[in-house]
Every structure is written in C-alpha cells, then in structure tokens.
Amino acid sequence: MVPRQSLEPAVDHDSVVQSGKARQQEVFHGVRSHERSCRDVDQANDCLTAYFENVHPFIPVLHREAFYGLYRLYCHRVPTSAARSIRDASTLEGRAVTLICSVLALGALTLAVDEKEESNDGSALANFGLGLGFYATCSRLSAYTHDNVETMLTYFFMV
User: Fold this and answer.
1) Please, are residues 66 and 123 in contact by the beta-carbon 8 Å criterion?
2) Which has the least CB within 10 A, 29, 38, 130, 134?
3) How far apart are CA 147 and CA 11, in angstroms?
4) DSSP code for 3
5) Which of 52, 49, 54, 147 shows the shortest CA–CA distance to 95?
6) How does pLDDT run across 93-117, given as a tens digit for each residue?
C-alpha cells in the first residue's frame, strides 16, 4: 500500500501570519504618515456639515436632528486631545464619540477643496489625513466590542 500524500503544500502557518502582519504594517505605515489630528470643535463642525451635505443624501441612515443632538452633547470630546482621555467604547460617552468620529471621518473626506489652493498647500491630502485621524480614534475606541447600535453604525461608516 502506497502512503497517501496531501495535495496541499506544506505551509508554515506562523510564517504566513507573520508575512500578513508585515504586509499590513507596510500598507498602514505609508498611510499613517498623513494622519492629522482634529484640533478643535470648529474643524469638527466643518466635517459634520460636509457629511450632511455630501454623504447623507446617498446614505441616509442617521436621523439628522437626533444626531445633531448627540453631537451637541459630545462635540467637546471629539478633538483628538480630548478623545484621548476616553478609554474605550464601554461607556455611553465612548460609544457616542466613536460614532461621531466615524461620521466626521466621512465628512473630512468630502470637504470641498479649491483646485488652485490644492496644488499649493495639499488641502485634499490634509483632508484625507484628517479623515484618517478620525478613523484612528474610532479604531482605538472600538477595541471594546459591545453589541449596540452605535458600534454597528460606526463599523458601517468605517467600511
């Protein structure tokens, strides 16, 4: 009797995982260099306005007035320096800021850029970096997983 050989190639699973992590780190490393922090509530307000003008008409999953009410309660926690003090999304405040930041990230990506200014100061890249900053806050806070509407909407907006 001839021993049966596996048709699948022998794979060192540890090396596959390591190379996958290395590839992921390389991709995010290049992108992370453009990440920008939200400095103040005015900057967040601009992103929120852009979201409701540019994204919400195509993805109307948020009730505008209800979201603005939530935003008014927690907007002071959205700038990066204030959001750092929130440990994770295990609290109502953490879930609210996570959801708000996911919306602001989409708004940042759709902020209007004057073509003449863009060639001089890289405004489009700066807006992209601001969106990355909001997504970074979302990712950090979402490390705590909890089955609730805010978390599900955050993941929806991040995809």
Assistant:
1) no
2) 29
3) 36
4) P
5) 147
6) 988 999 999 999 999 999 987 665 5
CA distance 69 to 159: 24
- CB count within 10 Å of CB 91 equals 14
Q: What are the counts of helices (DSSP H) followed by strands (DSSP E) for the chain?
A: 8, 0
Strand ranges, E, within 41-83: none
Instruction: Map out the domains of the chain as residue ranges.
Output: 41-158
Contact 80, 37 (CB under 8 A): yes
Rg of the chain (C-alpha set):
20
Question: 87-96: which pairs have CB atoms within 8 A and are 24 or more residues apart?
Answer: 88/140, 88/141, 88/142, 88/143, 88/144, 89/141, 89/142, 89/143, 89/144, 89/146, 89/150, 89/151, 90/144, 90/146, 94/141, 94/144, 95/146, 95/148, 95/150, 95/151, 96/70, 96/150
pTM: 0.71
- Does residue 127 contact residue 108 with C-beta atoms inside 8 Å? yes
pLDDT in tens, 43-72: 999 999 999 999 999 999 999 999 999 999
